Write the structure tokens for this entry.
Amino acid sequence: MLLAEIISVGTELLLGEIVDSNAAFLARELAARGITLHRKVVLGDNLNRLAEGLRTALARADLVIVGGGLGPTDDDLTREAIAEVLGETPTEDPALLAWLEGLYAARGRPMPQVNRKQAWLIPSAQALPNPVGTAPGWFVQTGGKIIVALPGPPRELQRMWREQVLPRLPLPDHALFAVTLHTQGIGESNIAELLGDLTKAANPSVATYARQTGVDVRVAASAPTAEEARALAAPVLDTVRHILARWIWGEDDDTLAGAVTQALGGRTLGVIEAGSGGALCLLLADQPGFLDAAVTVDHARLITLGLTPVTLGSVGVVSEAAARELAAGAREHLGAEVGLAVVTATAGEQAGQAFVALSAENAENVAHVNWPGDPAQIRERAAVAALALAYRTLRLPQPSGKAGHA
């Protein structure tokens, strides 16, 4: 078993100014190749703390991946930290220096002298070429351990990982097979109850994760070959699919918006949003069936889109009646075959309340959701609730009825 740890470097990551997407990418890559990841750590731009973090990780892991800190400035300290921990002195590599100078010359610019540190190497390190940046990586082998230093920009890190690091790693001689099932309309604890002891097994493993669009269920198995891993996971995967069939809307890279598009079956979709600020439109933006949309909180404009003055005066915009009228209005006034509406309040006494409705030739449905949260959370949840309602209704058309609870 190859044990790994990830160290993400950067004060901006430590303070939350930038989200650490690199560690998530690397974690998925390691899992897919049967490498066991035990820890992920974020450290600021401080030489002593970086060196201490490296020493600790090397004492526990076979593979330590350091992301970031390979820039040219004084606070880019990954190279210095690795050299200090290994007791080696960095020197300028002539080939790297010539490559760097060539990059700047090709752009008609002289290379700033601070960039010379990006041409450093220590005796234990191999340089990892960077075709899309100025920061070469390091591949270091020491005492049976491996340190990989990668640049911080995700585009550079991901390409270097795939093209330069993976071919050099002593990958385990076993494979991982995993499928992630996406569900909607059922809570994580309810899924755990339904799956019972399946979630307690180690191989194959079954794990649940709460996500923006519902709850994901990941079934994974490891074995000497991909075929054996797939065969090992197959009966458990079939069982989970059967148990959760009524709530599953997709797998792996599927999106809920994409599932709605499939359920549309070639029909066009019109959307009216009142109070959700276009959150639903953003989720649908790349979908081919998305025909037209209106995003407004202006009462006069909503009346032209199908909201009746009677409804506005009696129960207001954030109501079941308003959602139904606007869903029908999306068909009539936007020229779509299917209308989808979301009305929500992000402030005031109704904050967190949302109604979503769908109108089609042979199907109509409405749902009420009520979650606390800040305005961004409320808009996001309302948009997801609208997609979930659309998927359920279009997949299994049902007659109109009273508002349900999503």
